[in-house]
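Hey, I'm writing a tutorial for new members on how sequence and structure tokens pair up, and I'd like a real worked example in the thread rather than a made-up one. If someone can provide the structure for the chain below, I'll link this post from the tutorial.
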Amino acid sequence: MIITQEKTKITSSHNFDSVNCTIDAEDMRYVASLLRNNYSNTRLAVVREISANGIDANKEANSTRQIEIKVPTSMSSTFTVRDFGGGLSEEDIFGLYSKYGKSTKRESNNYIGAFGIGKFAPLSYGENFTCVSFHGGEKKSYNVFVNDDDDTKISLLHTEPSNEPTGLLIEVAVIENDIKEFREVVQSFFKFFPQEDMPKFLGVEEDFIPEVKKSFGADDDSWFFLDEKHGYSYGHYHASILMGRVKYKLDSNAINVENFISDEQIRKIVKELINDRNFMFRVPLGSVKLHHSREALEYNKSTQKSLCKILFKVAKDIKVIAVEKLSSSLCYFDAKRNYAIVLNSLPYGIRSSFGQAFEWQGYSIESQYFQRPYELQDDVIITQSEKIEDKDARNGFKIKSQKVARILCQDKTAFLIQDIDSSHGNNLRVRTMMNNDSELENVYIVHPKNGSGWAWFNDECHRDLINEDLLFNSSEVEKEKPNRVASGKGQSRANVPLFKMNFRKGCHTYRNADFWNDVKSPMSSLEFDGQSNYKGKNVYVAIKNYKVDSDEFSNDSILKTTKVIRKRLQADENDPMLDVYGIRTKDVSKLDTDLWISWEDMYVDCAKDSILANKKDAKIIARRNVLNNSKVSITHHWTSFLESKTLDFSSLDDDHVINRFLVDYKAENLDNVNRFLAQCVHLLTHKDSNWIEKTLKLNVDVDAYENNYKEILVNYPLLKMVANSVGWSVNLTEDHQYGNIMQNVLDYISLCDTNRGEGE
């Protein structure tokens, strides 16, 4: 790559003496160290410099083969690049290759390299690397390293005959902990390489390099926007350029756009482009100056001018593409639809810059919708009718209608213009339209009620410029005639006497009807086989429109809870699996109570059985529920301290306020709570609190619990500070930099007690 240099003309009034500045041999060690270690990201430097050198070597030798890269793995922790250039003789290795700043690529922009220091990039990562040259029928291996005196050295290791293709192989040892990051660096670096230049990667999966997803861009790929989602990032993340296939981030603060672009609107667009992290554009090799580390650009006047010139063209190109898209629109509605497609493809930050720049046949396109003015809300009524797929509905769909203030121009949309007085039957007319056109998903019913309403639709919406295929008059569209199905012969579930809950694995659905399977037998003749009931009774739940007729429970909650109960019953061979039947609310009164039990009653009975079988844990859970409803608010940091396994207040009296509080607190926080048991306790607390109190004998003194907590906060105020600074994993009894924490806490409590006279 030709290195761009700004020419500075110096005029002198006298013939002063001058000298070229150089580097003395004894200072070369220091300068070489500076050059080797000028990379902020050493892993990226290794991948970028060695790979770029390999690509350049292939190009210089007109090789048709791709360079080969072996990515480090846990089995082989080396990064290698093999090119198929001409290789280097021993004379070139010890001569050309060993020289810092020596390069043969500065006379042409056909090559990526130019500075002559990238070959030593591996020494910024490790102390040495291996260079193998295939040249003149020989394979020669060299060790490139930094010695104890900080000198860069090259030593010949091995020579052997070889019939392998000419070229160089660079091998860099990778630290085990860096393997994952090295692989990610390789993926990121080569992500934007054109396929024809993509290296051959060894030992990796086929899709190792991630696909570049683009939302919008030039046909020649000279610029594009990535289809990637990021959070708000203006001023922190900027656009990138691609030069010689290598990506470089831009620094918006270093580009003075005002100096090079006079057009205010274009200037604004260019600034937005520079600050958009998803925007990328290609620049010719040598068109901008790079820092010698090749990690960033040098923003001299020439570089800034070149970038602004390219971005000026991009801004113009975006407008041209937009115009082309809109010019191909079939009508005014379609132009607004295409406007949305173009604008939604652009980053949010620059949409406003183009929002009023689009035209179609001389008409300005400024939005993707027809907006009804607020003052016309009573003059023209707009209803959006949307198709909702529903296999149980007539013809497989139903209509969702809502009043709106704007018409969104989008695909699969049509108008139904109400040109008659009555709106009755409009939904049926919409259904007719959707039956005739299976692709149709949205119909806007427009009802102008007076001259002002008609004027808005005809003039502001440019009715005459909308394709006639999209416009339908209500007076000309027939209402859909429902298909009447003979009783018991069609797909209707109206005659199904009852339903059984569907417990199949993964039955998650938003439709209530899908929770139930049809049961063909009548309720009165339902046979009980003893394998699906609860204590000899079938379980039912009242349903209305396939939804549980209850304010407390839903289809989903009943399904999930019953699955848990099923597992419990399965654990007891004497208890059968249970089913849950759905009975229409109007039919519940017909049930024989000797044969049927409501799901809620079954749940309460099952909960009592569970509590009786686990009274000790149930009592702790019930006490916890009572204390949780107290006014005591235990913060996260207090919890970490109080639940520490090394917390030990055994040296304090049992009647000490801290131990009195902890007795209740520890009971409140039961480890490994049985979730179903906790659920049962909660249920009975609300459904039958007297039974809970009588069975478990709680005897909870909430007032004492609250008073003990308040007393601790007042008497030992620094305890809260200790709790906030101690994590749950800290061993309180070990000696730390501040001493034994537990002992310090006990000493503090004793001091406080003594000062109050409690210790006397």
